[in-house]
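Methods: holo model generation. Sequences were used as deposited, without trimming of termini or removal of tags, and paired with ligand SMILES retrieved from the corresponding compound records. Each pair was processed once, and we did not select among multiple samples. The sequence and flavin-adenine dinucleotide SMILES for this entry were:
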Amino acid sequence: MKKNNAYVIIGNSASGLAAIESVRRIDKTSNIINISKEPHRPYSRCLLSYYLAGQYNKDILWIRHEDYYKKYNVEGLLNTTVAGVDVKNRALAIAGNKKISFDKLLIATGASAKSVDIKGADKRGVFVLRTLEDAQGILNMLPSVKKACILGGGLIGMRAAYALKKRGINVHVIVKSSHIFSQMLDAEAADMMRQHLETNGIEISTGLEAKEILGKDSVEHLVLDDGNRLDCELIVIGKGVAANLEIVRGQVKTNMGILANEHLETDNKDIYAAGDVAETYDILEGSNNVNQIWPAAIRQGKIAGLNMAGEEAKYEGTYGTNSLDFFDLAVMSFGVVKPKNDVDFEELIEIDTTRRLYRKIILRSNRIVGGVLINDVERHGILLHLALHKIDISDIKYILADEYFDFGKVVPLIKRQAKSFARPEYNDTCATYSPLY
Amino acid sequence: MKQSKKIFCDITKCVACRTCELACAIEHSATKDLFLAMLERPRPRARTFVHFIERDVSHSIACQHCEEPPCMEACMSSCISKDEKTGKVDIDRSRCVACWMCIMVCPFGIISREAADKNKAFKCDLCPDRECPACVDACPTKTLSYETRDDFSRRIKQEKKVYEKK
Ligand SMILES: Cc1cc2nc3c(=O)[nH]c(=O)nc-3n(C[C@H](O)[C@H](O)[C@H](O)COP(=O)(O)OP(=O)(O)OC[C@H]3O[C@@H](n4cnc5c(N)ncnc54)[C@H](O)[C@@H]3O)c2cc1C
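and the model returned the structure below.
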C-alpha cells in the first residue's frame, strides 16, 4: 500500500509556519508538505501597509530565511492552489488533476478581503489590500494618483490611508458607520483618534457609503449615497475579510470559519484548522468567534502542530485585540469594548484630552472583559492577561485605570489567586512577597 | 531543558532606591558614564522598573524572558526570538516596525516605546556587554540576582530559615 504524507499543511503564512515549527519540534523525520497558492516564500501581510508607505523596503516582508524549507525539511509547493479536500479519501485535489494524500491535514488558508458590490468595482484602480500583489498593484499606480478614496474605516482601511498619506497622496476615507474603528474602539476613543487623523491631513466622512465607481477603464470618480461625487484615481477597499473555507465546505462543520475545538481539530478526526480560517472559543466574549489577527493565527498554528504531532496541547481560546499607531499616537484595545447591555458591565474611565490620554476598562462581575488605551499603552498587556485569566480585580479596582497603575499592583493578586495565574514567570515575581498588611 | 539564568528580585530586600534603574539607563547609554549620560538626548532610559506593591513594599521588574513569550507570538515582523541555549528573548531592532504588538500582549508591561528616537520597541537585553546585568551588579541591598529559577528558590528558602532562627 502507498504511504500517505504524514502531514500536509495548506497555507504558509502565520499559522502554517507556526504549525510546521511545532511539528518539527516533536517529529524530526516524517514527511511534511506545505502548500500555498501564493508564489512567495513566507511573508507577513501585516507589513504590507508599511511597505506601501515607503517606510521600509521589500525585505522587511520576508519573515523566514530563504532556506527555510530546507532547514525544516519541508516540501514546499508554492504557487499551488488546493481546489478541494476529499475528506473521506484523505486526499487533496490540486491543479493538473494531481492528488496529494495525507494522514494529518492542517487547513491554514486564512481569509480573503471582501470587495464591494457596486457598479464599477471592476475598474482599473480599485484594490483591496491583502496580498503582496495587491500592494504591488497599488504601488505601480501611484505615479498617476493624486487622490485616493478608502472605503472602510477599520484597521486595514486606515492603515492604507496612512500609508498613502505618507506617500504624499490626498486621501479621503469613507466610513459607513457613525465612527471610525467601529469594531475596535468605543465612540469616545474613536473620536479622539479621528481628530488626530484629521489634524494630520486625512479626510474622513462617516455615515456615508459608496454607490458607484465611474471612469472609462480606470477609476475617475466615486459617487456616494448622498449624491456627492469625489474625483480620485485610486480606491482601496477595507471592508473586512472572510474565511477561506470553500475547499472543505459541506465536509467539516463551518460557521463564520471552520469550527475547531480546543485541540484545533475540526469535527473530522485528523483534520485541523488554525488562523484566520478557524472559528474557536473566545475567552472574553464567552462564545465562538473568528478573531482574524496575527497573534491568534500563530498561537493556533502552534497548538494545532503539537496536537498533530501527537503531543496533546490545549488551546486556551481566542480573543480580539489590536494595536495601531498613526502619526505617533498609539491606540490599543482588547475584548469587549462596547458592551451591548449596560446592566452587567461596569466601566472605569480616565480621560485627559490635553495630553491625549485615554484609558477605559470594562468590567463584568469584577473581572476585566475589555479595554481601550490611547497614548499611554505600555500597560495594556497587564490588563489583557488579567482579563484572560479571569482574575478578580476588586482589590485593585481603584487604581486599574489610573496613570500610576503598574505591575507592582498585580503582585498581591498573584499571591492570593495563584492558581489562576498560569505562567511560571508570575510565580517568580511574587515568590518572595508576603503581605505586610 | 537546562534552566537558564535570569534576573530575580527578592522583594523582602528592596528599598526602592532605584539604583537598578539608574545603572540600567547608564549601561544602555552611548557614553556609559552617569554624568555624560545625563546630557545625552534623547535621554537614556531604563529597562527595569521599580514599583510599589504596597506602601512600604517595592520590587524591581524587567523582561522575564518568558518560557513561552507572548511577545514573540504576537510580533508581526517576526523580529522577536528566544535563544534556545541562554533563554534570552531578544528584539531585532533592524526589523522592528513599531507596531507595538509586543507591548499589547506583554503580561508584565515592561516593553517600552522608543518614540523619541527611531521608533522601536525596547526592553531588558540582559546586558550583552557584561557577564552580569548592570542592575544586579549595582543593587546595594542584593535584592536583585542573576541565577536560575532553581538556584533562586533554593537560596530564598535557605535565607528564610536563617532569618526565622534569629
Ligand atoms: C494590510 C494588513 C494589515 C494587518 N495588520 C494586522 C495587525 O496589525 N495586527 C494583527 O493582528 N493582524 C493584522 N492583519 C491580519 C493578519 O495578517 C492575519 O490575521 C494573518 O495573516 C492570518 O494568518 P493565517 O496564517 O491564518 O492566514 P493568511 O495570512 O491569510 O494566509 C493564508 C495562506 O493560505 C494560502 N492559501 C489560501 N487558500 C489556499 C488554497 N486554496 N490553496 C493553497 N493555498 C491557499 C495562502 O497562499 C496563504 O499562504 C493584517 C492583515 C493585512 C492584510
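Chain B has two domains: 1-62+124-166, 66-107+114-123.
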